[in-house]
TrEMBL record:
UniProt xrefs under Gene3D superfamilies: alpha/beta hydrolase
AB hydrolase-1 domain: residues covered: 114-373
The keyword Hydrolase belongs to this UniProt entry's keyword annotation: yes
GO molecular function: hydrolase activity
Name the record gives this protein: Alpha/beta hydrolase
InterPro entries in the record: AB_hydrolase (IPR050471), AB_hydrolase_1 (IPR000073), AB_hydrolase_fold (IPR029058)
Keyword tags: Hydrolase
């Protein structure tokens, strides 16, 4: 690599460092230190891998596979603050499902069930790609984008100088609006990953009657009922204490300088790709196309949206709402190496719902539904059978591990 190219890499990283520092105050200084470290790492990496080569690799990975390409019939729900929430419906294919349901259930086939999928923080409905593909045509499904994510509008209550932070309760009300618009009647199965599982808990706390009357099963994937402020994210005690102390201020400062920060974020894209992979997956050899797909999902979340949502997690405590799901078929599933919502949080949920099926997926990270889709889809299919949503003999599609052969 030429001396000029190396100098350009260092200069770009240094410029990013300055952008982070200008975020302001102690928070800006903290980010400046992080960016300085990133600059060294990025410059070193660029000695061996040129910028053009990395760009070509990303473009090639973006074109690999159909990840995120599945679309349903679009609709819009309106939240109580006026935010427009995008959802998509996948209807049952009568040629596939109806004859099978009649053959297996007879004339007394149960009422069609709608499965509502809620995604996690900094993701979107496409994070359920593999499960969506497997269930297509077999059961009615609804996939939606949480406020300020994906194709949904920016949260109205969060917009402008007088905007208020997001709360998990608000997300529960949003889910109620989506259900009212996309599945106003009939039995429901609720499936949520991470923040999506918390959204389900908030729905249960705010609308227990809806859960008791219409919900026939629930799945909590890589989520938590509370005490997220105690998570160490795989960091040593001293490091995590520093992060907890400065991160709220860092995010507030970054959110107020969104345009500046996004430029710095692009300049240090290699660093963020590494962080995303570490906190999303456990498998060392996860399919690069899947890893890049997750990277794109997370990158698409603006920094000011990241800042608006973060405080809600430290305040989140919905353990008292979980008993409303008692007596239902419930799946609690997590990756065994999840650094964001550790398995102890799933175990705590299962303790409050002792009849729930607890599944810990070996070598699984936080995005377990992308990393080990075969395990997640298999357990979801079993849950749907127990709920009467699909017949036991249904041919639910499966997918193998997205880790590369030999992993």
């Amino acid at each position: 690599m030429s001396e000029t190219s190396t100098g350009d890499a260092v200069a770009a990283a240094a410029a990013a460092t300055g952008a982070w520092r200008r975020a302001g105050g102690v928070a800006g200084t903290a980010i400046g230190v992080i960016a300085a470290g990133a600059a060294a790492g990025v410059a070193l990496e660029r000695l061996t891998v040129g910028r053009g080569m990395r760009k070509k690799a990303r473009l090639a990975l973006d074109a690999t596979g159909p990840y995120g390409s599945l679309r349903g019939t679009p609709g819009t729900a309106v939240a109580d603050d006026g935010t427009r929430l995008h959802y998509e419906v996948e209807e049952v294919d009568p040629q596939v499902a109806a004859p099978r349901r009649r053959r297996l259930f007879g004339r007394k086939a149960p009422a069609p069930v709608t499965v509502v999928f809620s995604h996690g923080y900094c993701l979107g409905q496409d994070s359920w790609h593999f499960q969506r593909a497997a269930l297509r045509g077999l059961v009615r499904t609804v996939f939606w984008d949480q406020r300020s994510h994906g194709r949904s509008a920016r949260g109205a209550a969060q917009s402008g100088p007088d905007g208020v932070p997001v709360t998990i309760d608000q997300l529960g009300r949003d889910l109620k609006a989506v259900i009212d618009a996309a599945a106003p009647e009939g039995p429901l199965v609720l499936v949520g990953h991470s923040m999506g599982g918390m959204t389900m808990m908030a729905l249960g706390a705010l609308h227990p009657g809806l859960v008791r009357e219409r919900v026939v099963a629930a799945a909590f994937v890589g989520t938590s009922a509370g005490r997220l402020g105690e998570v160490n994210y795989g960091l040593p005690v001293a490091g995590v204490n520093v992060v907890r102390r400065v991160l709220p201020g860092v995010l507030r400062a970054l959110g107020s300088q969104a345009e500046l920060v996004e430029r710095g974020r692009r300049a240090t894209a290699d660093l963020f790709a590494g962080l995303i992979k570490r906190y999303s997956f456990s498998s060392k050899d996860v399919d690069p196309a899947v890893a890049r797909f997750a990277e794109r999902l997370i990158e698409s979340t603006p920094i000011d949206v990241v800042a608006e949502f973060y405080p809600a997690f430290t305040e989140h405590d919905k353990s008292a709402a979980l008993p409303v799901f008692a007596g239902l078929p419930v799946l609690v599933l997590a990756g065994d190496k999840d650094l964001v919502t550790p398995t102890s949080h799933s175990e705590a949920i299962a303790d409050l719902l002792p009849e729930a099926e607890l599944v810990i997926v070996p070598d699984g990270g936080h995005l377990v539904m992308l990393e080990h889709p075969e395990a997640v889809t298999d357990r979801l299919a079993d849950l749907l059978v127990r709920a009467g949503a699909v017949p036991a003999a249904a041919n639910v599609g499966t997918y193998g591990s997205t880790a590369q052969p030999g992993s």
